[in-house]
Amino acid sequence: MLAPDHPSSTHTPLAAESLPTMPLLDRYTTPADRYDELLAANGKPRAHWSEIIKHLDWMGPRALQEAREAMQQQIASNGVTYNVYADPRGADRPWDLDLLPQVLPAEEWEGIAAAIRQRATLLNAILRDLYGPQKLIAENQLPASIIQGHPGFLRACRGIETPGGIHLHLYAADIARAPDGQWWIVSDRTQAPSGAGYALENRALIGSQFPELLRTLRVQPLNTFFQTFRDSLAQWAPRDDEAPLIVLLTPGALNETYFEHAYLARHMGIPLVEGQDLTVRNGAVFLKTLAGLRRVHAIMRRTDDSWCDPMELRPESALGVPGLVDVARKGGVLIANALGSGLIESGALLGFLPSVCEHLLGEELQMPSVATWWCGEEPALEEVAERLDSLVIKNAYGFAAEGPVFGGDLDAEEREALIKRIHEQPRNFVGQEMVSMSRVPIWASRNASLEPRLTGVRVYAAATPNGYIVMPGGLSRVAGIKDTRVITIQRGGGSKDTWVLAGSQEELPLPTQPKAEDYPTIVTEHDHGSLASRTGESMFWLARYVERADCALRLLRCGLRQQLAADDAEWPALHAAGLRSGVIAKRTTQDKPLSPQAILLISLKDANFPSGPISNLQNVIRLARTLRDRLAPDSWRIYNRLDRLTTSWMRGTHTLSDALEFLDQSLMCLITLSGYSMEHMTRDAGWRFQSIGRRVERMQFLSIALDSLLVPIEGPPALASLIDLSDAVLTYRRRYQRAPERGPVSELLLTDRDNPRAFLYQLESLADHVGQLPGQLPADISTPLRLLAENLLSRKPEDWVGSSQEGTALRGLLLAAWEAGNELANALQNRYFSHLDVRTTIS
């Protein structure tokens, strides 16, 4: 049987020199009691597999193993994950993808696609009736107790009319093949079907390893399916004077399929939002943007039904949008899938679908469901009790915490206990026949050969104004071990790319695909102010933490270099700067005296030090995860590498040389991220807030560094350390060709407009960026920055450090700059992120 969950298991690669060179099928055997997707009954490869087997034999075990390792590296680099809440790796658990695809010929796929279209049409009609006139109940087609007793039946949504009569915009069916080759539907996914984004990523990953095969076999592409789905939502969205805005509603970065949410949002070009990003006003839903509220016309939701509205559904929900049900009731927003659509995922309905299909559509089901008995009916209850040994017992509504129970596994006492439970609450249980699922080959690294695994396919259909279309492929799932009866990635299973061959045609078109000109233009971010406020805030803080980590790592690296060179001359001033900036933990000074080496290593290793470098790096990764849909794949790979570096550093003990290597590698990642921001990001509001965040942090760090190292209250200046911290060693040597002196250092780091790490550069850049922010600020918050810049330029650089009195004046200016940075951050928070100091407008 298929289980509805999904990730991943890890594999140990086999050393290349130990790989055997035998033909791939020598160890692959065909059982008599199961259908094999690769081999026919005579033991020969099926026709649609023959070209693939030839290609694999031509590659040989060594090349296949290298391809698998390259694919796993790409998964890790791309950060393709499936979060499992109980797994200690959490968000770091990689997606498990087998090297070999699942392959289906065009002729067979036509039958599958037709059955899935029919099934989606039928289930949509059932939903329309159950939340409308309920004729199916009145005409005894469905028992009222199944519906009225279902926890997923949302009474608050009864009577809501959906645009075009569509409740089920995206449908998924888990199908499996019986020993005779017949496909069966094991379960329906109607609430917020997952996996379509993983299927798209699987295609990209496998396609990079077998590009020639994809072209030779003319495997049908997947992209058009997602484009058509997005355009269909725009077509049904409520109309006004604006181009429709579609958003994807996610429960957040901790959700198990968050990678997919971000991936789909980026692929479809729509904003990824959380419930807190949306608000209800005047019968419509609005996105909180930097410029105010922007109308949302359609919501593609990945949040479960009951969590979508705390006002009318689940009051403890912090994931939904208060008032969303009422907006849907008034027709103010399209919600896909419609609220309450999880109702028909119930296994209790499966046994009634054949008759309901004939009643509503006037035709038989083209693909049957697995035989299922709902115990709420006396004859079915007796049948289940009598046949318990050969059945799987499940919760009828899918809400039970425990998994399926296999009747044949129970001893006499357990059997009687289960039967008693069923008799006490018969409506809560269904009995279902087990499907002896087919097998498909996987690439087994441990012995460099093909091995069989049980498999099933999740197939997707999307509603369009011209009927349902079916994705030409899907998410194939495979068992993690040989002798298992449940396929679930959460318990060690994996996935496969699903190839649908085009056959004799150049390409099989998507059935009843609507024309592009039928749809209105979709605009998600038409100006700089349309960025979601939470997204703008996250980008602002991401840049702050990147710069904060950069400054911290540079200070520690400067200290380590001095210790490795046995040079303690500037350590007191550098130590003071580290304490004042929070880079060095204060606890290192509270107990017995520690050596500089110990202080540096403790500060670099302590993850519980809230303002330390490790905490800053962890905040960088945390915020990057929440911005997955905004980050280009190339930049995400750098964040992912930085995460791996940090995780590796936190394990075990390290020497000073190890620490220096970690600092160099981490700084290289941060430099690359800053360069990517400068050279590849569009100069929109998100980029501008990142630039402001970076400049605020750099200005404040420079304030402390200049005060501690250029004009220290006690002791001599630490000019070499200051130049090193400011990444200006080479520039100083080329320009001045002398040992560090206060005058030249002051010129380079205080007033040089061409130096991006000079103090004046930060002041003027911040003033310029603030002046180009969207909307009207409550006051000119750039004025203090410009006044500070004018004050700094009012005298020569060397005059600021010519005497103790002038040094005091510089310290006053630096302190004012620090406070101006905080005032600026607070003003941005109140104006753009929390909207506390302006009246929010509706645009």
UniProtKB/TrEMBL annotation:
It comes from the Bacteria. Residues 101-479 form the Circularly permuted ATP-grasp type domain. InterPro entries: ATP-dep_Glu-Cys_Ligase-2 (IPR051680), CP_ATPgrasp_2 (IPR025841), DUF403 (IPR007296). Residues 531-833 form the DUF403 domain. This is Circularly permuted type 2 ATP-grasp protein. PANTHER family: BLR2978 PROTEIN, BLR5612 PROTEIN.
